[in-house]
Amino acid sequence: MEKKLYLLCLTIITNILLLYSYSLNVEGRHHISKKTKTKSITSHAPSSPVEGSVKEPSPSQPLPLSPPPASSPSNVVPSDPSYGGSPDLSPDDCVFDVTEYGAVGDGSTDDTDAFIAAWKAACQVESAVLLAPADRTFMITSTIFSGPCKPGLEFRVNGVLMTPEGPDCWPKEDSNKQWLVFYRLDNMTFTGTGTIEGNGEQWWELPCKPHRGPNGSTLPGPCDSPTMIRFFMSSNLVVRGLRIQNSPMFHMKFDGCEGVLIDELSISSPKLSPNTDGIHIENTKSVGIYNSVIANGDDCISIGPSSSNIHIEGVTCGPSHGISIGSLGVHHSQACVSNITVRNAMIRDSDNGVRIKTWQGGSGSVTGLSFDTIQMENVRNCIIIDQYYCLTKGCRNETSAVYVRDISYRNIKGTYDVRSAPIHFACSDTIACTNITMSEVELLPHEGELVDDPFCWNAYGIQQTLTIPPIDCLQDGMPQEIGEAVEYICST
């Protein structure tokens, strides 16, 4: 009997020890983040390799281009930056809180080293979360967050993340071309309910674009203002839920990437802030931009060369310079852009609506563009193709051009600013724009009377329905010399 009691007690004690050991293991998985002491870490963004030319990555599985599932209808455009965003932290998250690595978050202390230390630790753990917590303002200097990292890494900003206060406070040893760079990453998410603040006011006072000088001359601008957020040579990226504002130059740039999902962003800067494009895409494939509000001083969304398979839906732009393909072909370069769709969008109080802009002397092609169901409110140049794009008065008329073809405008309605004709097709003298389709295009003056008829030059296409105002200048069929333009078509 005593032997049986002894064995029973031994079994109970063993089970208790096993349960205690298991609970320690579970707790370790839930709370792997530890505060570490770090030595001085270089936080400057070097001029190489990130500022050089790119080759596109080859991701294993690019992200789909269909709108992501959401708790609300996909056609609802958020007006509140807290809409959507990142869910609350789960007990199962492997969280690397930057405050545990020394970040102060008082808005004036340089927290760069703490972010780099937290990044290096999180980079080594699968499905890790680097957290900038709410109710803190973190100031960091120009920094490259490099990979490769373990898959599933999430950079979550729930507080405020901001740049130094203007060019005078920018560290002299840092790159003044870019602020935050995410480099060579795969399967990474940038999200949160917080704000990314660019402190761009002092940068906007610097001349960036060519501008007027004494006695009617034109002076160059240095364009030495940093892009706020740059994703470079990365794949399978998600950017969701953040408020991004007051960038010194471009708010967000994707360069040499493949597989990008952008959803529920709020991007804003003043109407007159120069070169503050909302989202710029170049050398990038397979991009979806959804359910976002962008108000800025330049292009709402701009798409540069070597970009394809881009879907934009549920986006509100304005004030801005509209949604632009280009500029393309500068300095006699080749530009290849294809398969771009913009649908269910709103453009208001903007200098342009949907625009294609190319420089003379370029080559390549823009093909397979669809603009479908777009509402215009008080927009100049609602629909524009400009193959004579030039920033000065000294641009020459050249024979080569980017070949623009297969462009569809469907269900484009609303009002235009009468200072410009609502439809403007200015195509190259030698390489005509071809296969332009117009259907259910109805544009009326926002105020005042109808302006002159739409403008066309060397533009060919069809009107499937009556266009308002009528676009009688669009020529039927194809130009006789179109065969000479075959060399300009990019290979797919």
UniProtKB/TrEMBL annotation:
List the InterPro entries.
Answer: Glyco_hydro_28, PbH1, Pectin_lyas_fold, Pectin_lyase_fold/virulence
According to its UniProt record, where is this protein located?
Answer: Secreted, Cell wall
Q: Where is the active site?
A: H321
**PROSITE patterns cross-referenced by the UniProt entry:** POLYGALACTURONASE
The annotated regions of Pro residues compositional bias extend over 59-71
Domain of life, source organism: Eukaryota
Q: Where is the composition biased (Low complexity)?
A: 72-82
Q: Which GO terms describe its biological process?
A: carbohydrate metabolic process; cell wall organization
Sequence segments annotated as region (Disordered): 33-87
Q: Which GO terms describe its molecular function?
A: polygalacturonase activity
What sections of the sequence does the record tag as coiled-coil? none
Q: Which UniProt keywords apply?
A: Cell wall, Cell wall biogenesis/degradation, Glycosidase, Hydrolase, Secreted
Looking up Gene3D superfamilies in the UniProt record yields: Single-stranded right-handed beta-helix, Pectin lyase-like
Q: Which family does it belong to?
A: Belongs to the glycosyl hydrolase 28 family.
This one is known as: Polygalacturonase
The scientific name of the source species is Capsicum baccatum
